């Protein structure tokens, strides 16, 4: 009995990591703001956690007096409605699946949660997607909940449901008003297209003037183009994109990725008042990609932009070195020459004179802060190494040097 009591008082701790994802068929606009139900389905590529990930440790103890949350070392408001929705939903599933009598003892305990990103929020990558996917994964493990969790992650952030799976993922719009069928499904695993590479081109860390949530709402209310896109354009594009991925057809995949990105930003322009997420550097990168492809006579690189100025470039492994050199010549690093390219190693490339003349414009020094080289990767992972835990034995954040 003494042993059981000691265990009851002990901390239950789980640590998980979760990935960022980049949509190639965009989600923009909700039909239900509380349940985060989208007006159209979307499709994304999950990026590898070796380069980009969120780590979350969740702990439960009878000694905790309240739920608490720390983000990148700073305590934040645990009362945030979306956060509460995820907590409530995971606890509800734990009760339902285990039955009230066999529910884990820690279900009635308060939880402490610590979360860290290994990439700057300024990178403009949807950190909320990785964050909520990680939170839901860790809480589900803590409470012994298994099975379909993308619906729970969606309650935190729409795109988080896509971060619950690796590789190529479709978030299905669903039809039900309660959102139970608005779920993520894997189109193909991360191993499906081994040559595919991703370059995240970070141009600016300025806070955007219109946040995604507010921007979407205004677009839904004022853009006829967005309505047409959701009802007519996206369903056709999804089927086409799935085929390109299945066939590993980079030409088709790349072209459609660029067209969909452009149309998403067109709906932002069609919003009233208009929203501008791209800046001059974004537009320079778009023009550069088209010149590069025209020079080669085919689609060798493809850009996509989310609600921000940073470019995400898809390409194949054999093109990375050449295109990174094109970027380096077009946007020479002002200071951090050694840190300009991060992530997976990039070989060196010598650019032929005719490519330089046709493709590389007047250089814009310092316009690009850095480039991150990565590839498709798996969904959330459980971390078994206790050294990786973000909370100490007292349930408070560890001071990690």
Automatic annotation (TrEMBL):
<keyword id="KW-0443">Lipid metabolism</keyword>
<dbReference type="Pfam" id="PF18376">
    <property type="entry name" value="MDD_C"/>
</dbReference>
<dbReference type="InterPro" id="IPR020568">
    <property type="entry name" value="Ribosomal_Su5_D2-typ_SF"/>
</dbReference>
<dbReference type="GO" id="GO:0005524">
    <property type="term" value="F:ATP binding"/>
</dbReference>
<keyword id="KW-0444">Lipid biosynthesis</keyword>
<dbReference type="Pfam" id="PF22700">
    <property type="entry name" value="MVD-like_N"/>
</dbReference>
<keyword id="KW-0756">Sterol biosynthesis</keyword>
<keyword id="KW-0752">Steroid biosynthesis</keyword>
<dbReference type="InterPro" id="IPR036554">
    <property type="entry name" value="GHMP_kinase_C_sf"/>
</dbReference>
<keyword id="KW-0067">ATP-binding</keyword>
<dbReference type="InterPro" id="IPR029765">
    <property type="entry name" value="Mev_diP_decarb"/>
</dbReference>
<dbReference type="InterPro" id="IPR053859">
    <property type="entry name" value="MVD-like_N"/>
</dbReference>
<feature type="domain" description="Mvd1 C-terminal">
    <location>
        <begin position="198"/>
        <end position="383"/>
    </location>
</feature>
<dbReference type="GO" id="GO:0019287">
    <property type="term" value="P:isopentenyl diphosphate biosynthetic process, mevalonate pathway"/>
</dbReference>
<keyword id="KW-0753">Steroid metabolism</keyword>
<dbReference type="InterPro" id="IPR005935">
    <property type="entry name" value="Mev_decarb"/>
</dbReference>
<dbReference type="InterPro" id="IPR014721">
    <property type="entry name" value="Ribsml_uS5_D2-typ_fold_subgr"/>
</dbReference>
<comment type="pathway">
    <text>Steroid biosynthesis; cholesterol biosynthesis.</text>
</comment>
<keyword id="KW-0456">Lyase</keyword>
<feature type="region of interest" description="Disordered">
    <location>
        <begin position="375"/>
        <end position="401"/>
    </location>
</feature>
<feature type="domain" description="Diphosphomevalonate decarboxylase-like N-terminal">
    <location>
        <begin position="18"/>
        <end position="184"/>
    </location>
</feature>
<dbReference type="GO" id="GO:0005829">
    <property type="term" value="C:cytosol"/>
</dbReference>
<keyword id="KW-0152">Cholesterol biosynthesis</keyword>
<keyword id="KW-0547">Nucleotide-binding</keyword>
<dbReference type="InterPro" id="IPR041431">
    <property type="entry name" value="Mvd1_C"/>
</dbReference>
<dbReference type="GO" id="GO:0006695">
    <property type="term" value="P:cholesterol biosynthetic process"/>
</dbReference>
<keyword id="KW-0153">Cholesterol metabolism</keyword>
<protein>
    <recommendedName>
        <fullName>Diphosphomevalonate decarboxylase</fullName>
        <ecNumber>4.1.1.33</ecNumber>
    </recommendedName>
</protein>
<comment type="similarity">
    <text>Belongs to the diphosphomevalonate decarboxylase family.</text>
</comment>
<keyword id="KW-1207">Sterol metabolism</keyword>
<comment type="function">
    <text>Catalyzes the ATP dependent decarboxylation of (R)-5-diphosphomevalonate to form isopentenyl diphosphate (IPP). Functions in the mevalonate (MVA) pathway leading to isopentenyl diphosphate (IPP), a key precursor for the biosynthesis of isoprenoids and sterol synthesis.</text>
</comment>
<dbReference type="GO" id="GO:0004163">
    <property type="term" value="F:diphosphomevalonate decarboxylase activity"/>
</dbReference>
